[in-house]
Amino acid sequence: ATAPLGVRRVPDSFGACPLRDAVRVSGGVVATHPSSFLASCRLAVDWAMFARDAAALAHSRFGRTLTGIDHLGSYACRDVRGRPGVESSHGRADAIDVSAFVFADGRRLSVSDWRESGADGALLHALRDLACQDFGLVLSPDYNADHAGHLHLQAGGFGLCR
């Protein structure tokens, strides 16, 4: 049985990074760690598809049961690193940074292990490639050093997958 995605509307906020029509996401096919997260509606939809698809991929191709996804957060009022004045997608709650995947056997597969060979490395790369189907922009350790420890998963975007 698949658990429903928990989505709760949050009040609009105003200021430097206004947040309108946002939701707090929790539960679903896999748990999020350390907690729920703020998301635009389109990020919530993309996340629901990715969590479902990631659990299916881990099970069918690697024989693992995905039970959780660790994240570093979603909403943060800031500019894109190195580009002053250009609002980050995190400032609109349109992106989430994923740091690890947790499995039923207790194993935790960290994005920091990106360069690892073998099944773990193959699974990380397969999950990134899958994310590219569910999100409009995905940045991995292959993109730059700023993403060495996480996958940046962004709703919308322009189809960049690295």
UniProtKB/TrEMBL annotation:
<dbReference type="Pfam" id="PF06904">
    <property type="entry name" value="Extensin-like_C"/>
</dbReference>
<feature type="domain" description="Extensin-like C-terminal">
    <location>
        <begin position="13"/>
        <end position="162"/>
    </location>
</feature>
<protein>
    <submittedName>
        <fullName>Extensin family protein</fullName>
    </submittedName>
</protein>
<dbReference type="InterPro" id="IPR009683">
    <property type="entry name" value="Extensin-like_C"/>
</dbReference>
